[in-house]
Amino acid sequence: MREYSERGGASASAVQDKNISASRRKRERQRALRRRRRIHMLAMGLIGVICAFIAVTTVSYYVQMTELKGQVEEKQATLAQLNSEYVSLNAKKENSVDLNEVEDYAKNVLGLVKMDRSQEEYLELQKTDQVEVNEASSGVDKLVSSFVKSFNAILSFLR
């Protein structure tokens, strides 16, 4: 409570209370200002850490991407080399089939011999073609019979 003097003014203790409350308000304002500055500094520090993290992550991804591109180029070079080798080996294989080599293999490895003219036999066929129609036979029999006749005709032609 404030004490008043006889003249109606404030006493010395009231003035002192007024000064104390003003200094308290000033100190509290300063504390609030310091708190705001600390919060601001923490926020700025956090933003800096986040930015640094993003920068490091980006650089590491670029490094990984560069390494992977190098690996892809190596694999493509290996693929091109293998394709070239495949084409070369395929051409070599196609050129390696020679009838003289086949004949050599048949004679030396398999023990086969070439036929003599004396071993060849010629057959005379009838001068007219004959066709037999057996209506009692089934469709499968007709098919087998025609296949056998065709095969015999081809064999006789080849001899």
Structure at a glance:
This protein is mainly alpha-helical and about 160 residues long. Helices cover about 70% and strands about 0% of the residues.
Overview of the molecule:
There is one protein chain. This protein is mostly helical and 159 residues long. 72% of the residues lie in helices and 0% in strands. The protein is built from 3 helices and no strands. The longest helix is centred in the middle third of the chain and has 85 residues. The chain is rod-shaped and about 160 Å long. It starts with 11 loop residues before the first helix and ends with a helix. The N terminus is likely disordered.
Regarding quaternary structure, how should these chains be classified?
A: single chain
What is the succession of H and E elements?
A: HHH
Largest sheet: none
The count of DSSP E runs of length 2 or more, i.e. the number of strands, is: 0
Backbone shape? rod-shaped
List the helices and strands and how they pair.
Elements lengths: L11 H85 L2 H10 L30 H20 L1
Task: Quickly list its features.
single chain; 159 residues; mainly alpha; 3 helices; 0% strand; rod-shaped; disordered N terminus
